[in-house]
Amino acid sequence: MLQAWVKHKDNLILMERYHFFASSCRQFGFNCKSLAELRNDEDETDGALAKILKVLKQVHCTFFDVCRSYAILIKFLLFLI
After folding, report:
1. Do 49 and 18 touch, CB atoms closer than 8 A?
2. Distance between CA 35 and CA 12 in Å, rounded?
3. What global pTM score does this model have?
4. Alpha-carbon distance 38 to 72, whole Å?
5. Beta carbons of 49 and 7 less than 8 angstroms apart
């Protein structure tokens, strides 16, 4: 996966592989029950997927806040002209 992101490593969020299904555990050589077999899942608020979602939401908000700021600045500059 890293080979596809050589020029953009700063944009890559690495995380552990998520093994919910039994086939995933078998495919990657884990000799244990999957989360689905255990009828369990990671913590909704503190699990890896929830943490990554929080990071992505922060990135999204930051990006669009900057875009909004530029748009306001451009409108103001156009108003002055």
Report:
1. yes
2. 26
3. 0.57
4. 52
5. no
